[in-house]
Amino acid sequence: MAVCAECRTAPAAIEDLDAQPPRPWCLTCATALVRAGDPVVRYRALDDSDAYRHVLAGGSTQALPFR
Ligand SMILES: [Zn+2]
Fold first, then answer.
1. Domain residues for 30?
2. Distance 66 CA to ligand 1 centre (A)
3. SS3 sequence, the chain?
4. How far apart are CA 46 and CA 4, in angstroms?
C-alpha cells in the first residue's frame, strides 16, 4: 500500500493524477487541501471507500458563499 507523500505516515487513500509521477495522499492530508481551497480534483481512489469523494462533495458545498 502506498504511503502519503505529505505526512509519510498514513496509508494513501487517493493519487493525484495532475502530479507527475502521481502523488499519493492520505485522507487527512487530502481533506486539508479541500479545506484550504486547493482540492485534488483529478484523482484515482486507492481504497474501496468513497470517503474522499464525500469530502470533496462536502468541501465544495461548504466553499459556496451563502447568498
Ligand atoms: Zn498524509
1. 14-63
2. 31
3. CCECCCCCCCECCEEECCCCCCEEECHHHHHHHHHCCCCCCCEEECCCCCHHHHHHHHHHHHHCCCC
4. 11
Model confidence, pTM: 0.81
Residue type, position 63, single letter: A
State the Cα–Cα distance between residues 30 and 52, nearest whole angstrom: 8
Q: Is 23 inside any structural domain?
A: yes
If one counts the domains in the chain, the total is 1
pLDDT in tens, 28-63: 999 999 999 999 999 999 987 788 999 998 855 554
Residue among 60, 21, 64, 22 nearest 52 (CA): 60
Residues that place a CB less than 5 A from ion ligand 1 = 4, 6-7, 10, 26, 29
